[in-house]
Design goal:
By secondary structure, the protein is of the alpha/beta class. The protein is built from five helices and five strands; from the N terminus they run βααβαβαββα. Strands 2-1-3-4-5 form a five-stranded parallel beta sheet, sandwiched between helices. The longest helix has 18 residues. The chain starts with a strand and ends with a helix. It binds ligand CA2. Ligand CA2 binds next to loops.
Length: 147
């Protein structure tokens, strides 16, 4: 059975496309989900967003039990959540950390990602297209491991 790719999104990302378009663009999260599903093709994909830390942790636990890879935009939890980092460290497969904006060009509080300590790869600054790139990269990482 093919293990699904989990695409996990953190707080406030459900409001994408509604404000700060100069930083985050105009694409909504629903459009990003459709983009991810197209990029994944036949590969199963679970797409989630929550404003609650514990829900994100529960989805990481689901992925530990049944996922092939995790793509995560933990939003503000990226910089604060040791609990999300601890959960990600338990995941045995590839993890792609993703940010729509280039966090390294921003204020200092956005530069120290905890998630990066568990990530296989990091994609930042490609806007919503970063999700498409992340799914393509994840398929390669999963297939490379399977060979
Ligand atoms: O660039 C990213 O993807 C971020 O993870 C987005 C987070 C921010 O805390 C990170 O530093 C970088 C914030 C998301 C805020 O959500 C918005 C939703 C609608 C409009 C504007 C922002």
């Amino acid at each position: 059975m093919t293990k699904p790719i989990y695409v996990l999104n953190g707080p406030n990302l459900n409001r994408l496309g509604t404000r700060e378009p100069e930083i985050y663009g105009t694409t909504t999260l629903a459009e990003i989900e459709a983009m991810c599903r197209r990029a994944a093709g036949k590969h199963p994909l679970r797409f989630h967003q929550s404003n609650a830390e514990h829900e994100i942790i529960d989805w990481i636990h689901d992925a530990i039990d049944q996922g092939g890879g995790i793509i995560i935009n933990a939003a503000a939890y990226t910089f604060t959540s040791l609990a999300i980092l601890d959960a990600l460290k338990m995941f045995p497969g590839p993890i792609v950390e993703l940010h729509i904006s280039n966090i390294h060009r921003r204020e200092s509080m956005y530069r120290n990602s905890l998630v990066s300590q568990a990530a296989t790869a990091v994609i930042v600054g490609l806007g919503a297209n970063g999700y498409r790139a992340a799914v393509a990269a994840m398929l390669e990482l999963i297939n490379r491991k399977a060979k």
